[in-house]
Amino acid sequence: MRRALSARRTKARAVTPRCDASRVARLATGRVVSRVGFGTAAWGDETRGFGTRYRERDLAAALSRALERGVTFVDTAETYGASARAFEQGAEEMVRRARTTARRDDARDDAFVGTKVLTVPWTNVSAGGDVRSTTKSLVDAIEASVGRNGGEAYDLVSIHFPFPTWTQSALCDALAEATERGLCRAVGVSNYDVRQMTEAHGLLAKRGIALATNQVKYSVLDRGAEKSGVLAAARDLDVAVVAYSPLSGGALRTSADPEIRTLDKLLEFIGAVNGGWTSAQVALNYLVRKGAIPIPSCTSVARADAIADVLEFELGVEDIETIDEKMDYIERKS
């Protein structure tokens, strides 16, 4: 059975990212990152295969291969693998150890690691902690994340989502304070709509801080970021859009919907005529060509190679238009 994101090549190749729009993106802070990254939501999560289908050594090898191949954007969060944190196997801790291994194996370390802080007030209550209701409580949470990162500042810290009990001013104050205290080098948001992103951008700008990223759900099957205007507004504000769930949880491969299965075949055909890429790799390259930075899950070396291969080709304008026309048709029918 064809895998959703299978590696086209099996031999490792050290690829130094070219400084062009097809391989790297320059954030508003000036930092250059790869145009495709990988997410760590499955790291430490037993319900997603940790400890059975893959272990920490597999994750460390995956990160090393990704960096070797020029995939530098690494996304994590304080909540990823949180249930395994008692054993120091939360995602943040394992990313730190994996990065240490990569540094030992390769003198070059151009990883760009971002984490996210949760805004749900009762996050810490079950563990006997205080309610998160003040700017200080969020900064304390960011400081705890930095502790799990071995005391090293994160390249990026983002608000995980705008919980309704918080004002944008309080959230931006937390990001600003984290920056001023040296806990992070850049700040971002996640799951922000146009109004929220614009407001956050303005509040941070008043303190001389750039809003670097907005992480939103975005894929071929879910173009809400386009339809809502987030993608266009982010472009105007010089905010990079980071696309999570860029493969819709594998829906292209598993859906029983005949229209989606036809779309998968279309992507497969486009991949074939562009050099032999899988439908999933085409789906990721589609997002890159739209201006986003997709962060598919990565738990193996093979997966890291498959993700890195997305940087090896570029869909043409006609390919993008064909995919959009098919999705427009599917959406009209639904």
From TrEMBL:
Signal peptide: none annotated. Gene3D superfamilies: NADP-dependent oxidoreductase domain. It comes from the Eukaryota. One of its GO terms (molecular function) is oxidoreductase activity. Pfam families: Aldo_ket_red. Residues 36-326 form the NADP-dependent oxidoreductase domain. This is NADP-dependent oxidoreductase domain-containing protein. It comes from Ostreococcus lucimarinus (strain CCE9901).
